[in-house]
Each structure stands twice: as C-alpha cells, then as structure tokens.
Specification:
- By secondary structure, the protein is of the alpha+beta class.
- It folds into two domains: 7-38; 45-270, Distorted Sandwich (Glucose Permease (Domain IIA)).
- Helix content is 14%, strand content 26%.
- The protein contains three helices and 18 strands.
- The protein has helices spanning 6-31, 33-38, 265-270, and strands at residues 73-74, 84-87, 92-95, 104-105, 111-112, 118-119, 122-126, 142-144, 149-156, 162-169, 175-184, 193-194, 199-203, 212-217, 236-237, 240-241, 246-247, 262-263.
- The strands form five sheets. Strands 1, 7, 8, 9, 10, 11, 12, 13, 14 and 18 form a ten-stranded antiparallel beta sheet that branches.
- Strand 4 (104-105) and strand 5 (111-112) form a beta hairpin.
- The longest helix has 26 residues, at 6-31.
- The chain is globular, with a radius of gyration of 22 Å.
- Bound molecules: zinc ion.
- The site of zinc ion has 5 residues, from loops.
- Zinc ion binds at residues 119, 121, 123, 213, 245.
C-alpha cells in the first residue's frame, strides 16, 4: 500500500488523541491539577434524621475547624502566600483591598474605603505542604459545623453564595455564633440542630478566589448579621449583598469589632 487511506489516518489520529487524553488525565490526578481546574468532587451528603425544629441548643462540649483536616486550609500569610494586609487598629487580617471604596457608604452617602473596614473573620484557602495558597482547590470542600448547635439563619447572598449562621451554647454560659460565607449545596435549614463535624454545605465555586469566609461572634449588640448603623446594613456592594465579612459603624465609638463581639475564629477554636 503506497499511502494510508483517509479513514486509516483519521483512526490513527483518534488513537493518538485518546492516548494523549489518558496521559493528561493520569498526570492531572498525580499532580492535583484536576483539583486546581475543577475543585474537589462533591462529598456524599448525609441524610438528615427527622428532628423537631428550634430545639434549645445543647451545650457545645468541643469546637473544631470548619474545613478538615485543618492543616490543609488557611488564610493568606503575608510574605509567604500573597497579599494580606494587617489591620493595625485591631491587629486583624484584612485582605488587601486597600483604599478601594466601591462598596460601602457612610450615613451621609460618602464612600468608605476597605481600609477603614474591619474584616470580621478569616478567609480559608487550600494550602500546600509549605503553607502556600493553592488557588481553587478548596472549591467544593465540605464545610463542617464547628460545634453542636442550632442553625439560626441561612441567607442567599447572590454572587457571594449562601451564608449559614449557627448558634452554639458555651459551657461557661452564653452563646457564640459561627458564620460561614460563600457556601453552596446547603444541607441545613433554619431551626435545624447540627452536631460538631456535620457537613452543612460545600465551599462555593468562585474560580481562583474560592474560599470559605468564617466568623465567630457573640452578637454582643444586635441580633442580626448586619446590625443597624453598620456598613453591612446599608445595602448593596456592586449590586451584591454588602458586608461580606466586613463591618464598620457610623458611630466611631461602636466601630471597634469587639463592640459587635467578633472573635478571632482560629484562635477561639484553637483555644478550646
Ligand atoms: Zn472574608
């Protein structure tokens, strides 16, 4: 035969393509590239046993982190994984949004830059063994309730995903609330009891910026997620829900995050 037929050439190309795709697939699994491209596969969501809504929350005997194993997840670390500004007023992490002022307005309608806001909580990304952020791998990671408690709200925050708030009773008395932003596939509803470690949803796919925003707060003043007078209560941010992890108060005396009971979530859980 002097030359291949057209059909033979086509079949040879298909064969080469299939072998190539197989190789790429194996390499991606080996290197975790599929995780980077697609995020994690969805977990098997447990079925929920029947329950009576709004039970009195049990005392939370122990607290754990919302993404497990905890060492696989963490925030930006300045000088290691990328930009993380530290809010020197409150010694708190503040993602480096700088003086951008495209979201929040004060009571007079003037823009309030991010640098004047307090980032209440911590943004958890996937980390490699050296503690460097690996973009996107946290996508679809299961989000676990940090302690026994009762779901007190779920909220659709548009492009910011779903928000879940859980009330936990403390052994020493009083309560603390864990709040989880940028969640999808929510598995719980308001009034539902949850146990520590229960999967309540997954981290929403936000592309390279996928992360879990996690807060712990005592709601010392105000019983809603956005107390009146704060930036989050005032409306939209790029037509999204304002206050995604940021707070600020018109009254300077109430601007301190402690006024609203915000805690360093990592330190709180680590200290339990
Ligand atoms: Zn955040």
């Amino acid at each position: 035969m002097r030359r291949r037929t057209g059909c033979g050439r086509f079949l040879a190309l298909v064969l080469i393509a299939l072998v190539g795709l197989g190789l790429i697939s194996v390499l991606c699994r080996e290197n975790g590239l599929l995780l980077v491209l697609l995020g994690q596969p969805l977990p098997d969501f447990p079925t929920v046993a029947p329950y009576t809504p709004w039970p009195t929350p049990p005392v939370a005997a122990a607290f754990d982190f919302p993404l497990l194993p905890a060492e696989d997840y963490g925030p930006y670390v300045q000088g290691v994984t990328g930009p993380l500004a530290v809010d020197t007023r409150y010694d708190a992490q503040n993602p480096s949004l700088g003086d951008r002022a495209n979201c929040f307005r004060d009571a007079a309608g003037q823009p309030v830059p991010f640098s004047r806001l307090y980032h209440a909580g911590v943004d958890l990304f996937g980390l490699d063994e050296d503690g460097r952020v690996v973009w996107r791998v946290v996508t679809h990671a299961p989000v676990h309730a940090v302690a026994d408690g009762v779901v007190v709200f779920t909220m659709d925050a548009g492009q910011e995903g779903q928000v879940i708030g859980i009330e936990h009773r403390l052994p020493e008395g009083g309560a603390i609330y864990s709040v989880y932003w940028h969640v999808s596939h929510v598995q719980v509803r308001e009034g539902q009891p949850v146990v520590r470690g229960q999967i309540i949803g997954v981290v929403e796919d936000m592309g390279l910026n996928s992360h879990l925003h996690w807060e712990m707060r005592t709601f010392r003043d105000g019983s809603t997620i956005f107390p009146p007078g704060t930036a989050g209560a005032r409306g939209g941010c790029n037509r999204q829900v304002a206050g995604v992890g940021y707070t600020w108060d018109d009254d300077p005396l109430r601007a301190h995050p402690d006024y609203y009971g915000y805690r360093d979530p990592t330190a709180f859980v680590a200290g339990r």
